[in-house]
Predict the 3D structure of the following.
Amino acid sequence: MYGNIVILSGAGISAESGIPTFRDCNGLWNNHKVEDVATIQAYYQNPKVIHNFYNQLRKDIEDKKPNPAHFAITRLQHEYKNGTVSVITQNVDLLHEKAGNVNVVHIHGQIDQSVCMNCGKIITSLEDTSVETVCPFCHIQGKMKPNIVFFGENLLSLNQVQKLLSECRLFIAIGTSGAVYPANTFASNAKYYGADTIEFNLHETINHYDFDNHIVGPAGQMFPPYVEKILKQI
Ligand code: BV8
């Protein structure tokens, strides 16, 4: 029987909610490679383009709803009594929260926040931001950036992530290609500490060797029955 459970989610968990993934054919960045455009250098060179992209993305995903995979996490968090169930997400959408998930760690940032690059304060941003946005804390203009971790920037909450990985006994990856570092090292980290590892994806991923088990198919169809099985084992 497992103790603490950690779930790592990627863009694939939101695919059945109508949010395009990054590296599938209909890539999110108008067929640009996300690692070429979502970089901190691109932000400094042309912050207007980045602000416009995330202002549009915020509008595009505003009406998107969680799918059965997100709700299955909520059920697991409510009914699993053998330990904690934490979510580490690479996604900037808020579908985990909309589904009622708790203990959600956004390692790549989140679409409803901006961060001041002058004073470091994070604010909630539900409206458009731009290079004219003034920080409500230090009152400096033009330093507010979407609170999104771009390529070349350090992740958020990495210390908390390491603690979760070292204490989990079941690590579940849902809908992530394993293309991005350091999130693509989390499964092997958890395994090092003694966790069983399982991935849910449409196919085996590039780091499939980190996983003891693979469940192939859409997360919205495959993850809820797996939660049922976990809960029956209690
Ligand atoms: C860092 C914000 C230290 C934007 C994102 C050379 C080699 C190796 C690594 C590097 C390198 N050069 C630089 C690096 C490090 C770099 C990196 O990994 N680059 C890679 C791409 C080469 N990483 C970083 O820079 C990170 N920081 O390392 O800090 C540092 C500091 C300074 C200087 C250097 C290093 C920061 C990474 C964060 C980048 N920001 N997002 C935004 O989200 O708008 S990453 C972006 O990719 C998203 O967060 C996304 O979530 C993430 C990972 O992608 P996935 O979520 O996995 O999505 P993807 O489309 O790839 O896959 C979807 C999967 O779902 C597929 O497998 C598909 O089959 C599956 N699927 C689809 N539908 C379903 C499904 N599964 C189940 N059901 C379905 N229905």
Summary: The two ends are 7 Å apart (CA to CA). Strands lie at 4-9, 85-89, 104-106, 109-116, 122-124, 144-148, 168-174, 196-201, 213-216.
